[in-house]
Amino acid sequence: MEHARPLEAIAGFAAMLREHGLKVGIPEQQAMVHAALALPPARYPCLEAAWRAITCQSAAQWKSWSALFEQYWYPHRLKGQVKTSGQTRHARHRPDIRQLVQELQSQLGATKRPQDVASKAMDSAWLPQDLSRLQMLADLIAMRLRKRLSRRWQDDQNGRRLDIRRTCRRSLATGGIPLRPAWRRSRPEQPQLFVLVDVSRSMETHAQLFLRVARAFVAAMQSRVFVFHTRLTEVTPLLKRDSLHVQEKINAVTAGFAGGTRIATSVMDFHKIHARAQLRRGSRVWVFSDGYDADEPEQLADQLRALVQRGALIDWFHPGSKIPSSAALRPCSTIIRNFHRMDSLRDLETLSKILN
């Protein structure tokens, strides 16, 4: 537990910044950790300027930064405590800046590979309240999907659709007079959800967030989750286990993690092999990717069209504010239902009101 203290302190600082309106997500927190690892301990005062450049996006945020930094990292100057993330945090529960740089350097920088450091940094960035909020949003979206009515019917004496066949069968007992009509109503049915997460090198800083979101939907509606780079692998059983170290488990079963990307080939393997028996009308397929594909550009449109022909509804979730415009995705604009930004829990909260 002791070696995680610097990462937990940075995660707490990021949560405080979010409370004050700064958009500090997983990528920003990872960049803050990398900045601390790259900085020699003797130059620790420079860390404030580096973090300021990473997190501030406006003149107003730039002006308020110094007060927030002072409030969190030097609370002893404010009678030893400060209100952070809804709880009172005392100075003794986190290192000061000099100690933080030294601990990160000694515990992570010299002993771990860069990708391992990134994984641990992103894993610790999730505070318990973040995980609870994520699961709540996933449950809310699952309820929205569950409310949609299918084309299937079920018997219901209070229904509004007459079941002619059952009514005629009942009338045989009364000489052909339909004294006991049978009724039906639409049956609410939760659609099957498939989540495909891009874990290639271009998505390295976003994959952890996407996997966390996918894991929440495994719990909320029994979705099936796949990761892909140059090939596709199902990771649903791993995400069902009660462990926060999602990325470490994914790395263990997916050789070539953070390599190239073959989206079209992965989608083909998905619908021809892995989900062949489960894909049906109304199934949801969510793709988490930036859209950069090493396959021939026209292949992705062909494979996505094959999903639609089997009744699937496709939504594409991407990092950044701009809709991906790679050569592979440009022909797919009429095939994909919607493109959604996914950079933080705030984006997921917005989507919880519109996803269907």
Task: Please specify the SSE layout and strand pairing.
Elements: H1 5-19, H2 26-38, H3 46-55, H4 59-73, E1 81-84, E2 87-90, H5 97-109, H6 114-124, H7 128-146, E3 149-155, E4 161-162, H8 164-171, E5 183-188, E6 193-198, H9 207-221, E7 224-228, E8 232-234, H10 236-240, H11 246-253, H12 263-274, E9 284-288, H13 297-309, E10 313-318, E11 338-341, H14 345-351
Parallel strand pairs: 6-7, 6-9, 9-10, 10-11
Antiparallel strand pairs: 1-2, 3-5, 4-5, 7-8
What are the defining features of this structure?
single chain; 356 residues; 15% strand; three-stranded antiparallel β-sheet; 14 helices; elongated; alpha/beta
Quick overview:
The protein has 356 residues and is α/β, with parallel strands linked by helices. The protein has helices at residues 5-19, 26-38, 46-55, 59-73, 97-109, 114-124, 128-146, 164-171, 207-221, 236-240, 246-253, 263-274, 297-309, 345-351, and strands at 81-84, 87-90, 149-155, 161-162, 183-188, 193-198, 224-228, 232-234, 284-288, 313-318, 338-341.
What do these coordinates show?
With 356 residues, this protein is an alpha/beta fold. It is 46% helix and 15% strand. The protein has helices at residues 5-19, 26-38, 46-55, 59-73, 97-109, 114-124, 128-146, 164-171, 207-221, 236-240, 246-253, 263-274, 297-309, 345-351, and strands at 81-84, 87-90, 149-155, 161-162, 183-188, 193-198, 224-228, 232-234, 284-288, 313-318, 338-341. The strands form three sheets. Strands 8-7-6-9-10-11 form a six-stranded mixed β-sheet. Strands 3-5-4 form a three-stranded antiparallel β-sheet, with no helix packed on it. Strand 7 and strand 8 form a beta hairpin. Helix 2 (26-38) packs across helix 6 (114-124) and helix 7 crosses helix 9. The radius of gyration is 25 Å and the shape is elongated. The relative contact order is 0.10. The model is unreliable at 80-91 and 110-124 (pLDDT under 50).
